[in-house]
Structure prediction request, 95 residues.
Amino acid sequence: MEAVFDVEASAALTERQKQRVLRKAGPVLRGIAQDERSQARNRELATERLADALREALHVPRRRKPTKPSRASVERRLESKRRRSQTKRLRRPPS
Prediction:
């Protein structure tokens, strides 16, 4: 069983949504199912898969909010580097 959704002919989607789906998934979405022996169950599965594909294509990823390390974490890192440097300095042969 195959469920087909024509994005460009859809009245359910706004223009912005259509553009997003076209960019991500193409002009025609398909949901295909041949898992079950029952035609009705395969029809349901195909419709679910089509809906999942449409949902995935319409998903807008969250914007990344740039962050910087806290002052305490920067201090910890620098202190760790100083300790490591001191350890290595003490391993050197005396000059």
Notes: Helices lie at 15-25, 39-58, 71-91. Strands lie at 2-6, 28-32. The chain has a mean pLDDT of 94.
